TrEMBL record:
Chain segments carrying region Disordered: 74-96
Keywords in alphabetical order: Membrane, Transmembrane, Transmembrane helix
One MF term in the entry's GO annotations: DNA binding
Organism: Streptomyces morookaense
Lineage: Bacteria, Bacillati, Actinomycetota, Actinomycetes, Kitasatosporales
Name of the protein: Helix-turn-helix domain-containing protein
Cross-referenced InterPro entries: Cro/C1-type_HTH, Lambda_DNA-bd_dom_sf, P-loop_NTPase
């Protein structure tokens, strides 16, 4: 068994007609490594090394599986009769074989999640209705491609002809497999079908994927800042955003997301290189060239060429450029997207006269303009939505030279009318949601325009629900957070005091308590607004969604640094907030009771010290308990934006139900327990059991509300998306329903845990209209 891998590697190398030197050069490993693996001197082939060798040999899925299985068995995995494996410690202590099985299982779950997600997305975009628009490509100019010897991973001094990388949509995986380096750049102008190609690549690759091969995952690379975060770290962060369960600890102490990226289990499909901010494209390309990661990259040609001119081509990468649609493509596709004519020719459609004019009058200006516009899948899809899917619209109007002065006006017309067509009244019902809501197209265009402008100001294509407030000025965000927190705490405490006053009939005390409630809310708002400023607004960051859930029975994390760190944070917050709150509490009571200044100051200091100690004893254990009961989400969690929102909402409700009574009990019981020592230290204190209950209840509710609004992603969603932005007219009140409806109508698309506009051109168009309407 020990020589199985050696013999198999040697056999595969001979079949490929390579020497050990050529194989080493193509795989990017040392010749001594290849020689040692073939002779048996090295009994510890790393999984990543075996994958590089398989790529260099150009192995198919079955051969790759066989080679990696032989490597794993060689380093300590013995087959059982039932097909499972026993693990034996590798003789050399290399970690890769021990990491293989657990990460392979996680990769399988990730592959299933990715496949299901993009299959639904293809169906949602009606890619196959009636059939996918043809997407073809051709080689790009040689100046945009690395040396073919590098692409082919040939040894020094080798020369070779270019690879044949031409093809069409259903051949993309085969073309990619022919590239020994595993690096391909796909260039195409706006709307040429790059995103459709990446989705088809992922789905076809997953269908033919062997268990040993990496999982292709699409990343919207436009949101990457290469000067702030390294590529692998950014990939891991995006994985955990879309799959929160990957924050769970993985082999070697890192998270599962980091382990998958570092071990080569993820094949990055980087969509939208041109959407990276202009000044960051050069460092982005340099960062990509500093790695040997196999990848597929898409970009507009001009932006990619500009980045290449500033630094270098994408190292070891082949490159292709998507070609335009032809009149034959249009003639095959557009008539099949609309109804047959009601006249004598039942086989005819409203598109036939237009297509005939385009073919017979190519020199006519109107025909030439329309033919130019309809060379990209995006514009053809928009034309279909506006004229084929919308009753009563005649595509012949596109040939009116009095309405359209050129291709730009035609494109703006299609972009503008796409929203109107998408929001036309329809009788159909949506699954599990009843009738589709009627939304005024102009209002929808305004709200979508705000979202588009919001993304433009943030410089990202990703519409993240937890960052909807980030488009506001930082000071505005802090003030709004403070205002909402103060209002919520004041109303909560006031309602509690009113209830207590009604029960006991003590209206004069209730008046004082109402003043105290307002003061407590004001102080809480100022404190939490300041906290929010220093934690998030000053850094211009948003509160990230939680990758944890509260789990009381089983699955809780082991106590460790996180618990003790949270405990210390809770103690510090309790002391500072408690002292300030107690001081204000005592001062206001003295003012209302007309107490003299020296006595008022003395009482206020006593109350500040008392509340500081009491709150510290409550919030410290509460924070630690919260960390102790947090458990990572399931790996298959949150496959879409609303799924992630619902997960965070459930986590927030669970924290409220657990933490509010827990914090209240700790504060109330701590207050009662501390009365005797505090009385000995500070002198007589007017305190009784009713005071402990009152402080416990109000602190539990007020503390959890203020923390939730300030320091959780769901709380920030409520503050801005459910209160402030609808209140100021920027978004509708039912924001969730609006976003889901926009997705169902095809205006938005889903990319993991975020929304994106159907196309960057549509986002730019809506943002421009919004700014013009607002006079910005």
């Amino acid at each position: 068994m020990a020589s199985e891998f050696s013999a198999l590697l040697r056999q595969l190398r001979h079949s490929a007609g390579m020497t050990q030197e050529i194989l080493a050069e193509r795989a990017g490993v040392g010749v001594r490594t290849v020689r040692g693996l073939e002779t048996g001197e090295r009994a510890d082939p790393r999984v990543t090394t075996v994958r590089l060798l398989a790529d260099a040999l150009g192995l198919g899925p079955a051969e790759r599986e066989e080679l990696l299985a032989a490597a794993v068995r060689r380093t300590g995995h013995r087959n059982r009769p039932d097909g499972s494996t026993d693990h034996v410690e590798p003789t050399t202590g290399q970690p890769a074989p021990a990491l293989y099985e657990p990460l392979a299982e996680v990769a399988e779950l990730l592959a299933q999640s990715v496949a299901a997600r993009w299959q639904r997305e293809e169906e949602q975009r009606q890619v196959h209705d009636p059939y996918p628009l043809p997407v073809r490509w051709r080689p790009v100019p040689e100046k945009l491609i690395d040396h073919w010897v590098n692409v082919r991973r040939l040894p020094a001094g080798g020369t070779h002809a270019p690879l044949d990388v031409s093809g069409q949509l259903d051949e993309i995986v085969d073309v990619y497999r022919r590239i020994p380096s595993g690096r391909l750049a796909v260039l195409g102008r706006a709307g040429s079908g790059k995103t459709i190609l990446t989705v088809r690549f992922v789905l076809d690759r997953l269908k033919s994927r062997a268990r040993t091969e990496p999982v292709p995952v699409i990343f919207g690379v436009g949101a990457w800042d290469p000067t702030a975060i390294a590529l692998r770290d950014w990939l891991a962060a995006q994985l955990t955003r879309d799959h929160p369960g990957l924050t769970a600890p993985g082999p070697g102490g890192s998270t599962l997301a980091v382990a998958l990226v570092e071990s080569g289990w993820v094949l990055p499909v980087l969509d939208g290189f041109d959407e990276i901010a202009g000044g960051l494209r050069r460092p982005a390309l340099e960062a990509l060239n500093s790695t040997t990661l196999p990848l597929l990259l898409t970009s507009r040609p001009a932006e990619y060429a500009a980045a290449v001119a500033e630094t270098d081509v994408l190292t070891s990468a082949a490159a292709v450029e998507l070609t335009d649609l032809t009149l034959d493509d249009l003639a095959d596709y557009l008539p099949r997207t609309t109804r047959k004519s009601c006249g004598g020719d039942l086989a005819g459609t409203a598109w036939d006269p237009v297509l005939t004019a385009l073919r017979e009058q190519p020199d006519d200006r109107a025909c030439a303009d329309l033919a130019t516009v309809l060379t990209t899948p995006l514009m053809v899809t928009l034309a279909r939505a506006v004229y084929s899917d919308t009753p009563g619209h005649d595509p012949a109007s596109l040939l009116d030279p009095r309405r359209f002065g050129g291709p730009e006006q035609l494109e703006e017309h299609l972009l503008d009318n796409f929203v109107t067509a998408a929001y036309r009244p329809r009788p159909e019902h949506l699954p599990r949601s009843g009738p589709r809501p009627d939304v005024d197209p102009e209002r929808a265009r305004y709200w979508l325009g705000y979202l588009a402008d919001h993304l433009s100001r943030l410089g990202t294509p990703n519409l993240e629900w937890w960052r909807l407030g980030s488009g506001l000025r930082r000071r505005t965000r802090a003030l709004v957070t403070a205002l909402v927190t103060a209002t919520a705490v004041s109303l909560t405490m006031g309602l509690l005091f009113w209830t207590v006053g009604t029960v006991v009939g003590s209206w004069p005390n209730v008046v004082i308590q109402f003043v105290n409630a307002a003061a407590a809310g004001l102080f809480t708002g100022l404190a939490m607004g300041t906290t929010y400023w220093f934690m998030f607004a000053a850094k211009d960051t948003a509160v990230p969604p939680s990758g944890m859930r509260v789990k009381v029975f089983g699955g809780a994390r082991k106590a460790g640094r996180s618990v003790w760190f949270r405990l210390l944070i809770g103690l510090a917050c309790g002391v500072s907030y408690g002292f300030g709150y107690g001081f204000v509490w005592g001062l206001l009571n003295c003012v209302l009771l007309h107490t003299g200044f020296p006595e008022s100051l003395n009482i206020s200091l006593k109350d500040g010290i008392l509340f500081g100690v009491v709150f510290a004893l409550g919030t410290g254990p509460a924070f630690g308990l919260q960390a102790l009961l947090e458990s990572p989400l399931d790996i298959r969690s949150a496959v879409n934006p609303m799924g992630l929102l619902r997960t965070n909402r459930r986590t927030g409700i669970a924290q409220f139900l657990l933490w509010a009574p827990g914090l209240g009990l700790l504060v109330g019981s701590g207050a009662s327990a501390m009365m005797r020592p505090m009385t000995a230290l500070l002198g007589p204190i007017g305190w009784n059991l009713a005071s402990s209950v009152q402080v416990g209840v109000t602190t539990g509710l007020g503390g959890v509300l203020s923390y939730g609004f300030t320091c959780t992603a769901f709380g920030q969603w409520v503050v801005f998306s459910r209160i402030w932005l609808p209140l100021t007219g920027r978004l509708p009140w039912p924001v969730v329903a609006f976003l889901e409806d926009a997705y169902q109508r095809g205006v938005l698309r889903q990319a993991g845990a975020v929304y994106q506009f159907r196309h960057a051109r549509l986002q730019d168009h809506l943002a421009r209209r919004y700014r013009a309407l607002r006079g910005l």
